[in-house]
Every structure is written in C-alpha cells, then in structure tokens.
Amino acid sequence: MTSHVRHRPADPLEQQRDIVVACAPLRSRVNLSGIVRTAGCCGVPRIIACGNARVDRAIARDAVESVRIENRRTLVPVLRDLRQDGYSVVGLEQTTSSVNIHEYVFPRKVALVVGNERLGLGDEELALTDACVEIPVWGRPNSYNVATATAMALYEYCRQYPHG
Q: Locate the tRNA/rRNA methyltransferase SpoU type domain: which residues (predicted)?
C-alpha cells in the first residue's frame, strides 16, 4: 500500500520564472487576491495590479510574502514598459484572432495580461499584445471568472516550463 504525505513542501525552481502578470483594474479584491495566491503557487515573482488594487491577505495567504505586487494607475503604460523590457505581451482574452490555450506555446519571458471582469481588455490594450490566448468554454456563461482563467493560464505556463 502506498503511503501519502500531505502538504509536502514545494520543490525549489531551478531558476526564477520569467513571467509577470499584469492586471487591468479589477472590480473585486477577491479576484485579485485569488490571482495573487495562484501566482504564489506557480512561482510567479511579480504582479502589476492597476487601479485601486487591494489584496485580501486571508485569501492570498502566504503568496503575499513571495510575490512582489506593484500598483499602477493604468495598464497601457505598463504594457509599453514590459514590451520595452523584452517581455512578450500575451492577453488572456477572447478575440477573433486569439489562440486556444491548449495549442499555444508560451514564450518563456512573458507578461500575461488579464482584463477587467466585465469589460476584458480594451482596444488600446489589445493593440499592445503580441498574442491573445483564450480558454475554451463549453457552456454558459461565455467565459471563466478572471481569477479562475488566470489560474488556468498560469498552470499551463508552468506545465510548459516546469523548472522555471
């Protein structure tokens, strides 16, 4: 019989992940806090949260110790800066040219851009992306919750780059 051990510590990454999550102003601090917690689980070193961003430490838990959270006013200048710093800017958005996340190969150095819960990413923000990925939906509503979708996208990135 196999013995199972709960809560084993995570294996350390061979190198720091070269991914940044950039969030449009979100309506709910619950969503941002969920994104922060997932980012911590995935070894994401940095989140840029736009607007009046606040994190609920009870939801984000230990991730607030390991993920650097930067607050900015608006997303467009953030995306310009990230591109200038050599990041591929990938929007998590349903567009006419978005790629199914199951078929997309993430660049190693990537900024994952997450839109507002209701409005998604605007035209100006989309114009600054190098690609957009979407997660298939087989029912209603037509998209996943922003924190859930971000978790799926971060998990896929980590699946592609398991060692950092």
A: 19-155
pLDDT of res. 59: 93
User: CA angle 87-164-47, nearest 5°?
Assistant: 50
Global pTM? 0.93
Please state, for a pLDDT cut of 70, what percent of the chain lies above it: 99
Alpha-carbon distance of 92 to 157, in angstroms, equals 12
Residue 156 inside a domain? The answer is: yes
Question: What residues contact 84, with CB distance under 8 A and at least 6 apart?
Answer: none
What's the domain count of the chain?
1
Residue range 36-54, pLDDT digits in tens: 999 999 999 999 999 998 9
C-alpha to C-alpha distance for 91 and 68, rounded to whole angstroms: 20
Question: Is the peptide bond preceding residue 45 cis, with omega within 30 degrees of 0?
Answer: no
Q: Is residue 77 part of a domain?
A: yes
Q: Which domain holds residue 106?
A: 19-27+72-160
Residue 127's CATH number: 3.40.1280.10
- What are the backbone dihedrals phi and psi of residue 50, each rounded to the nearest 5 degrees, phi first? -95, 160
